[in-house]
Please model this.
Amino acid sequence: MAFQGDHKSRLPHLQRPLYQEAEPLTVKSEMMQQNTVPDTIAERRIQAEQPREARIQVETLPRPLQRHDEFLGQFTAMGQLAPPILDNYIAKEQAVTSPRFLRFTFSQCAIDENTQKTTGLPLAAVWHPLADVGPGEDAISILNKTPFRCNRCLAFINPHFRFVEGGRKCICNICGLVQDNSDEYFNDRDNKPELLAGTYEFVAPSDYSNRPPMAPLFFFCIDISAGSLSTGLPQQILTSIKGILDYITLPERCNIGIMTFDISMQFYKIGPTGEVSEILVTDVEDPFVPENVDGLAYNVAEQREQLDGLLDKLLTWEWTQPTKVNLSAGTIADACKNYLLKGRGGRVLIFTSQLGTVGKYKLTNRVDPKLFNTEKEKLMYAPLESYATLAQECTAEDVCVDIFLCTGQYADVPSLAALCSQTGGDLNYYPSFNASFDGERIYYKIFRILTRTQGFQAVMRARCSNGIAIDQYIGKFKRKGPVEMELSCIDSDKTIAIILKHDSKLQEDIDLHVQCAMLYTNQYGQRLIRIFNGLMRSTKIVPNIFKSGDADTIANVIARINAHSLYEEMLGTIREKWHSSMIQLLTTHRITLETAEMNKILAPENLRLLPLYSNTAMKLPAFSLTGVQLDSRLFSVHDLLGMSIHQSRLLFYPSIYSLHDISYQPHQPGTLNSSELLILPNLVCCSLNSINTNGAYLLFNGEVMLFYIGRNTNEEFLQNVFGISQFDELSENPEYWVLNDLGNDESAKVIAIVDEIRKRAPSAYPTLYWLFEGKGDDFILRRFMVEDATASEMSYSDYLLRLHKIVLNKVAERRG
Model:
């Protein structure tokens, strides 16, 4: 079922254990099954082809169908509107932080709160502290000295400090304080990164750390209960770890430990002659681990032989008398915090197959059907107080928790998500886990965790110039006081939304500054402070605000705000406010145009995709009204809170590439352009109206890829790509579901296209799934058809039409 072509240039090839046999795509996911009207692809296509009232030209509606395979050249960050998130460019900082690290919803800010409210849209920034720099971009400069700081607001010196009185004094761009200048910046201000680049970092003073930096440690905790063993989960995790060891970036600084659990905990040591001893801990109410972590974890470089030996032994280990129940994830995390990682910190990865009903932090089913659709429904969204407290304790010990939840049963996602997010980790959810379906996804996720850029012991905050202030932060972190965030671990996939507000009326046409600072320990053991400097401009002209809007960033922030609001407000109220914001946007824009044109849906050019993203986002489990179980909804919320703009853009509107006609597309997809970028195929709409029975398509939503093949796909295409021309024979023989170079142009192009899209993925290397028209369940295809109607949501065209009618009424009322 998964892609098996040669992609070693990016990641190691996944070595599947023998028990994982490929089989047709039949595994179900409740996240994907929520869109169930009509029941089949055929019924949906028939419905879509029914004659409709000629009231809107569907084919002309705004959609993000540009291919993003052209090189835009150098973008110099100076406070202007950033390039679209999927575009190819080289960011050159000139006093302002690269948009890879900091993107604003608007590059021009309203002069007061009331003017901003007329847009219906939030003033905010999305901060991506450890984002990877692009090819050809300058690395962040590291200073070996502590830069000058403002005496009042403590902002760090940056290119927007002004020097006056011949350089004897300087003016802080954040609070405006005039103060004596540091001698260092009096005569020599050239060639200093802190006065030239928007982003720089410096070595933190020794008193900025409460414990010495420790080498990264990853402790894997694997469920071996009967349910877990039946799915092949333990073997999958052990095989994945073994296959990844050769690709860890800094093996000399990486340590890995392994334990297993059911109703007890089992720790393993391997002796000098290869024998494995098992340490059994049965007191789960007050567990005591009698072995120091140094004896249970192995350095990937120096102790590779022992680590390989332990993995080999465990892969053939016979776990006798497996139990039907297991320890809770909280109990495992607490034991690791108290005995293994106390005083040194580390990352705990817990793989569990069910609701943990045993141990100090045991879980119970908290779902109460009587509370749904009431004011008290949000009580079920709150984590258990014990888990919230445990998360705080883990953060204090620099322990980060990742949980891989591999079950379709209720598992109290609110509590598990809180434990993960407040420590800087992630909850990874695999409903109805099946090794042949989800094994490769888990492999690539573990690979990402072990190899991506990350920092430890992080403390973060932002400062704003006069007139604006921080309203709130939204992300995965623990709040530290009124203005700071704290995380045990921060990685290159995490982002923070900074919601801004006016605290006074601004003058027109002035610069507004946001400075973000992060204290952290990098993977090399250096304690650093990284500084980011963002810039906006004030304006009283509403059309200028619209022109400066970044639709991808705005959509990301709106989704976060609404996801965060689910803990406080009813879903119906949140959705109503969301609709109102779109109505406010379109109404204000139409009034500012002063146009009499009433038969067109008018939206600001830069923001024309926002109604689309709103409609598609409301179909996510986090916001859908029907067919979503509690755990699925709260997992979706958890996922959105720290999601990057790149990821959310693909989630709100996936890319669907037309493959069957690549040989006839005029721009020659699958080849390199003049900038040595691979040209991608044409994109089609995310609607079944665009999926032809004689076509083959590659679908990508930022997480998974789907190769969809229509029943009447051209036989020559099938022969060239798969080496077999008959649809039925191909669909019934998984051994053909591979992309090998068959020595022809079409085969080479398809392989190149798949690999290129995977290289551009925003986080973990995506798994490729296969679906053949009329074969098996089509739930995964429906997941990509975000423009189509669902059981509770209108189609994109109907949603726009409804907005249009409401806006016309609003405008008529105002003009009447």
Notes: Confidence is low (pLDDT under 50) at residues 1-39, 48-54. DSSP finds 21 helices and 29 strands in the chain. Residues 550-634+648-653+786-816 form a domain with the Four Helix Bundle (Hemerythrin (Met), subunit A) fold (CATH 1.20.120.730). The two ends are 61 Å apart (CA to CA).
